[in-house]
Amino acid sequence: MSGMHRNRINRSKPKRYPDSPRLKGMSFQRMVQLVSAVLVNGYLVGFQKGKIYTGGTKAVCVPVLNCYSCPGALGACPIGALQTAVGGIRGHFPFYVMGSLMLFGIILGRVACGFLCPFGLVQDLLYKIPVPKPEAGPKLKKADRTARYLKYVILAAAVILLPAFAVTKSGVRPPYFCKYICPAGTLGGGLTLMAGNPALRELAGPLFLWKILVLIAVLAAAIFISRPFCRYLCPLGAFYGLFNRFSFFQMSLNKDRCVGCKKCEHVCPMAVEVTENINSPECIRCGKCKAVCPAGAISSGLVQSPKQSREDMAK
Amino acid sequence: MRNKRIPAVRFVVLAAAVLSIAAGLFRQEHLEVMQKAVKICLECIGIG
Question: Do B14 and A182 touch (CB under 8 A)?
Fold first, then answer.
């Protein structure tokens, strides 16, 4: 929760460093987020016709939470695909989807959250709305830390256990996370699809109303809290976070150079204690800490070889 | 000691991920993913 207040402090004094390339006032992160959002939702005809893409690329999982029922989606959402696989009639271990998730996780960690996720972009833009942000007192900090475990519960229960074992009266195993929680699906899939498809609008009932309420709650929270969905609810972020400590993409802090100004922690959108645990499961690798460090003590990049890995660890 | 193991874990997980994808492709699981992704998921959009 501390990041909520910290972020506000730093946004009042924007400072640009060579490590943070900008194009006409837009940060490198924002550029990549926009390009990624367009690439994973590149089937523009779908938005116009209210239909989804049915080409071969839908067999490939994208590294982000992006509903495959979004009219523009060119790939499959890994969390949707995982629920379908564990709840499928064949009932086997989902090698393909789990392998894809592990591959993204071990290479990038949560880089996908910070740079590639369209719903992360939506939350980042909402947090830019200039309203008073909540102060981070000890109680809020504690509540924030506790609430962050919720995403792991959602990953275990709504994405894996319930779709695997909870069979409905009609004999199906629904994708519980998609059905009852996912606000990214409601925004990217539900609303956009219904906007172009009158037949679907007529089918909307109480469940759709519930999902709209969840979406509104998350979007409203994003105005006051930096990335609330990523912090507390996202099962994909929870999964990738497990890899942050040993992914090939690593952040590192040179403690000899660090001057202890804590600017990195003030600017962190996820309220990570950068000087204590720079590769925390909460870090979305956005690079804001690196850009703001006056001593150049923070670096990031891909580890290239086992030898270099050992050298990095020895630092 | 714990840190020294990380580089090895990194490559073991990478190998496991690649092998898992290969096994999934061999079992044609990508076709299951596609089969689901090319139909409108009514649950996902809040109808089903």
Answer: no
Domain boundaries, chain B: 2-37
Residues ≥6 apart with Cβ < 8 Å to A255: A297
Inter-chain contact A306–B7, Cβ cutoff 8 Å? yes
A107-130: pLDDT as tens digits: 999 999 999 999 999 999 999 999
**Residues within 8 A of B (CB atoms), A 25-44 only:** none
Asked if the structure places residue A8 within a domain, the reply is: no
- Same-domain status, A135 and A258: no
Residues facing A253 on adjacent strands: A298
Note down the domain range covering A287.
Answer: 249-314
Q: Give the C-alpha separation, B7 to A99, whole Å.
A: 19
Nearest to A248 by CA among A311, A305, A314: A305
Residue B40 has phi, psi (to 5 degrees) of: -65, 125
Shared domain for A212 and A286, answered yes or no, is no
Domain count within chain A: 2
A 271-310 residues with CB below 8 A of B? Answer: 303, 306, 309-310
Q: What pLDDT digit, counting tens, does each position of A50-59 carry?
A: 889 999 999 9
In this prediction, residues B1-22 reach a mean pLDDT of 86
DSSP string, A204-253: --HHHHHHHHHHHHHHHHHHHSSSHIIIII-HHHHHHHTTTTTSSEEEEE
- Among the three residues A177, A212, A241, which one is the final residue of a domain in this structure? A241
Domain C-terminal end among A224, A241, A258: A241
Residue bearing tokens 């979406």: A215
Check residue A129 and report its DSSP letter. Answer: S
Does the ipTM exceed 0.90? yes
* Residue of chain A whose alpha carbon sits nearest to that of B34: A59
